Amino acid sequence: MREAEIRRLLAANLLCAVSIILAALVPAFFLDGFSVLGTHLTWLCVCSVCVATLNIILHLVLKPSQSPKRSSFAHKISRFLKCCIYFFMSCILFHAIIVLYGAPLIESVTETFLFAVLLSTFTTLQCLCLLGPNVQAWIRVFSKNGAMSIWESSLQITTVCSILGAWFGAFPIPLDWDRPWQVWPISCSLGATFGYMAGLIIAPLWIHWNRKQLTYKSR
Amino acid sequence: MSLRVLLSRMQRWPVVLFLAWVCLLFFAGIGLFMSGFLLTRIELASSSSCSDPLVPPPWERQSLPPGSCWAPQRFSKAVLIIIDALHFEFARFDPAKVSPLPYENKLGVLYQLATSQPRHARLYRFRADPPTATMQRIKGLTTGSLPTFIDVGSNFASYAIQEDNLLAQLVQNGRRVVFMGDDTWEGLFPKKFFRSYFFPSFNVKDLHTVDDGILQHLYPTVDSGEWDVLIAHFLGVDHCGHKHGPDHPEMAKKLTQMNEMLRSLVDHLGNDTLLLVAGDHGMTETGDHGGDSEKEVNAALFVYSRTPLFGSGPPEEPETIPQVNLVPTVALLLGVPIPYSNIGEVMAELFSGDGDTVSAALQQLSVYHINAKQVDRFLQSYSLVAQDLPAEQLQHLQELFSSAVEEHTQLLAQVQGTMLVPPELESRLGGLIGRFQRYLREARAVCTQSWARFHPLRMVGGCILIASSCLLCYMASELAASSHSFYRSCLLYPLLWGLVGAALLGLAHVFTQEGLDLLLVSSWAAAASQLGFFWHWWGQHPKRTRLAGSQPPLASGGPRQRLRAWLGLAFPMGILFFRCGAMFSDSFVVAEARVTPFLLASLVMLLVGKLHWDGRLTVPEGPKQQLLGFSSYRREIWYLLCLVAMLLVCVRLSSFFHQCREEIPQCRPSVFLSPLASLRSTRAKNLFYLLCVALLAGLVYAVQSWLRHYGNLNSSDPLVLFVRWGFPLVVLCIACYWAVASSADDSLGKLQELVQVAVIVFPWAVYGLASVGLLLLLCNPMTVFAKDTRESAGSIVTPYLGVPSSEVDFLHVIPQIYKRMQESQKNRLERGSCRATVAAYGLGSVYSAALVIALTLLGFLLMLLHSERLSFAFLLLFMEAFVLLHIHTPVAGLLMPPFSVPWYAVISWILAASQFFYSTGHQPIFPAIHWNAAFVGFHLDHSTNFLPAVLVGANTFASHILFAVGCPLLLLWPFVCEMSSSQKKKPKKESREELQEVEEHMMEMRLRESPEKFSTALLRLGLKYLFVLGAQLLACVCAAMILRRHLMVWKVFAPKFLFESLGFVVSSICLLLGISLVMRVDCAVSTWFSQLRLR
């Protein structure tokens, strides 16, 4: 059971990683002059949309959260609307935090906001898919010994990795190398993406490695 | 009682002494490193003379006219006009320009002379060598050499030039030198002038004194003819740049004045006079100078004489010549020897004369020959004294020189024998001149390259000293215990070791009869005492591990616990590591103003994240919650999150006050940096003025209400009265000063004189009031109001009647006589009457109150020294410090046992200090220093250098001072805020059960209860603070040492190192003062208690 679950997790994560790579490569065939660095805003949109749709599809297919509740259609709709609102709020929150960390306030608002959307996709959307619009559950998952399944462990790892990646992405900005990727917010969004991908790959491996120690409390 | 007083007194001095000793260790390291890193070039004492065997070949020698040395004199008189900061763009005239800027096309006379008499006049680009400070430039313009970096520091204490220089040569050869203008020259050339008119140069706001003074004397002196060389140094343009910037109508006025001056001066000149108009350096767009940017080094030189000077017309684009080239040129034109240490190259076109091309070339060749011989002689004698010029390059230069001289001799022989016909002769002459030129330029390049000279041994020594001091700080902060044996083994013995080391070294010096280098002795002593510390620490080590109990977390427990402790350390230390690592990259040093807030925000966010991860923010799960899978939060989480958000907002807002560096060209300096006087719109000016004053009043109100809240504003002590009435008075004085200082200069008309007085009086009133306040604070720092309702001394409500015989008894008295109240006066009276007791208002926050009062006073002083609108930045500083303390308070309750300040708090405190260094409009570069601060309260020149240095230093390191003095608050604050979170259960001994109610509000008296722990905690806090500061300093020092041949070393790393080490010195001294203040309060509290007991 556990092994099969880990294998499913690995497959899902690999699919996500591949989708990110494809999001960087495929649009070049359809859009003229598309490149990750050159038309960064387009890439940000494409990548966010790709990751979001894939995650939602995977969630629907794999049903890792195995919600046992009987849910009416209206309940589902309200849940969905709540999720949308949460996602939007998280985008705003990320935007505010990024600005407070020193991003320009007035110039390049679009860039900053799309970067916030990307970060939300990598973090909040995952939480929404897995845990639903339930803040208490989020708080539980992001504390020590709070994960209750390998999916939640994976969520922990990918979220922390994406945010760390974005954080480290800010480091090369002041350097005087004059590279195109040092422009705000390219290095940060690339950092977040690489961090997310690293998290996707690390998570199943780490869980596999520590499968003896990991004992999930049942609900 | 006496035992207790004795005990607590015993603990105070060792703490301060220990910290002072550690500071001295650091200072020794800094001094040693600095002596190895910032070395001046060795100045040779030799000077040239007329009879030197450096003479040209005999056949030319015969033709030397009387009064000439080395080369025939071409001019008997010269006028050197130095216009300070005459940028090349100021001197250039472009008639095609339709709408010139204020500084363009103002010096029309230069253009007219150059176009109407192309063989008489010429304009050059005059490249100054960095550092472009006036004193260094005067040195360069007279010695022909390159002053090195360290001289920047001594700009306002200009010592006499010891090296051979142009003025010395002129005087030595009987020329009468008359000087007028900048009094910097007086210090540089004492008693060299035949006649002199000096005017004060230090007040950069004064545009006219120097220039008007010169103009008054210039023409009478020129007409009197009692001079051979006349030097006039105008300062108006430079001061105008400093005050208004180049792009200002005032600059147009000033340059027009200079134009008129030059126009009439030209009419007064005779035929035998050479006129030189030179700028000593340029200026940046903001009117500053000191660095090596293109705008700063690009000055102008204009040469004119009534007799033809040049063989041909001027080139299309003005030629660029280095500044040192003026020295040999002027020397040879006036027929005096070239100064001994000159490395400049003659401007040959001035020596071409009237003859045909061949004779012109021959003349040029002869001056080149003299010049090359002089430079060769200098290089040879220099390489004998110092080894810093690389040997292989010297060898190469030597070869160049000897081959050129050989060819020169051959050529001269051939010319004498008329074996050569003109075309071939010309080409050979040209080739030879080229070789001399090449030699001179390469020699100059070699010198420029290697006169940043280092003592690697001293640098490494300084580095090691600082590193081991850091290690010592860390270890001592981990093991510090307040036992006497600790102080004996870790303070007394090391000090003795140090003394013995110093004495031995001194003895050795006495025997070897060598000069005693104080710096070396002190660093050896520091090293010896450090060795002593480590030795005794090692000796104690086995003993300590056997002792269980109060052990530092790292040394005790199993490997698991130790690992966990290390991990807990890892995250604040990781941030510190990033901060230190950033010192090694010039880009990160340049961008430090943005890096520090980033790291500070990350540190705080990480802290909250980690607390959450560890589950410390959630209430322990009840069974019901566990069923639901929820974990509910403590209420404090929202409070904490709000604080974090406030901190982030403060950090972000503070970035609006940044100064710019030239390395980031797209950066625009903050508008808040300029004084209100520079605002054109009156409405904006009034608005900002009112805002600033309101802000000051708000600060006073906030401080007073804080003190009132904790009951420190009730007594009628002088200090409390001062806080009540003196603070508003200080604010009033500052507001008046700002009003007077920001009013327009000329709008007041008759009131001008009154304004002049007011500008002096108000700052002095603030200085006076602030020092009165600080003195009161020192004399009686108790802000406690004691209400004694006891009938007699015997009626204290205490189970222990009579005089306590032991310390334990006494310990129990304090909580009883202490009572904290917040209710209104009436309630207090009602309550107080029903129980006979002593009610002491404000005793619980007596330590913090003293610190807060001191900080507020210091804040006022520092705000006075900054430009008006930077008071917003100070408000942010106080708010951020307050928020940091409040974040620290609940977290400290969650994380650590009391009496210990965790690392993250110290690191965030220091990060905030360096963040506000930038946010008060500073940058670690010399042009960004706010020199204006030296004139707050002083109108004219300072008589000493000490006072302006203190004022400018206080301005520059304002945030370092405030945060270092406020450092003990990190320890005190959790106790002060205990009231709001007093639900925390504390184990109590049975004997105190009846006192529980009182103990709830013990606050800072908990510290008082256990003096050993208190003094240890202070010591640990101080050591941690010094460790973090020292780690940053170490990073800077290592960066400067490792990257000493980096392109950016003089622009980025060396200034950064200087600022960081000065900041360290200031911070550590202020830290000592802050801790001493706490000790002083402790003393006062002791005496207060003993008086209470006696009554």
UniProtKB/TrEMBL annotation, chain A:
Q: Which InterPro entries match?
A: GPI_biosynthesis_protein_Pig-F
- Which Pfam families does the record associate with it? PIG-F (PF06699)
Give the record's keywords alphabetically: Endoplasmic reticulum, GPI-anchor biosynthesis, Membrane, Transmembrane, Transmembrane helix
Coiled coil ranges: none
Q: Where does the record place it? A: Endoplasmic reticulum membrane
Question: GO cellular component terms?
Answer: endoplasmic reticulum membrane
Under which pathway is this protein filed?
Answer: Glycolipid biosynthesis; glycosylphosphatidylinositol-anchor biosynthesis
Q: Which residues cross the membrane?
A: 9-29, 41-62, 83-106, 112-132, 153-171, 183-209
Q: What is its main location?
A: endoplasmic reticulum
Its topology with respect to the membrane?
Multi-pass membrane protein
Q: Which GO terms describe its biological process?
A: GPI anchor biosynthetic process
Name of the protein in its database record:
Phosphatidylinositol glycan anchor biosynthesis class F
Automatic annotation (TrEMBL), chain B:
Protein's UniProt keywords contain Glycoprotein: yes
Q: Which Pfam families match?
A: Phosphodiest
Query: Gene3D superfamilies attached here?
Result: Alkaline Phosphatase, subunit A
GO CC terms: endoplasmic reticulum membrane
* Example GO biological process: GPI anchor biosynthetic process
Has UniProt tagged this entry with the keyword Membrane? yes
Q: How does it sit in the membrane?
A: Multi-pass membrane protein
Q: In which pathway does it act?
A: Glycolipid biosynthesis; glycosylphosphatidylinositol-anchor biosynthesis
Where is this chain's protein located in or outside the cell? Endoplasmic reticulum membrane
Instruction: List the GO molecular function terms.
Output: mannose-ethanolamine phosphotransferase activity
Q: Tell me the keywords, alphabetical order.
A: Endoplasmic reticulum, Glycoprotein, GPI-anchor biosynthesis, Membrane, Transferase, Transmembrane, Transmembrane helix
Where does the chain cross the membrane? 459-479, 491-512, 518-538, 565-584, 596-613, 637-657, 687-707, 719-740, 760-780, 838-864, 870-887, 899-918, 957-976, 1023-1043, 1063-1089
The family line of this record is: Belongs to the PIGG/PIGN/PIGO family. PIGO subfamily.
Extract the PANTHER family matched here: GPI ETHANOLAMINE PHOSPHATE TRANSFERASE 3 (PTHR23071:SF1), PHOSPHATIDYLINOSITOL GLYCAN (PTHR23071)
The protein's name is Phosphatidylinositol glycan anchor biosynthesis class O
Please tell me the species this chain comes from: Malurus cyaneus samueli
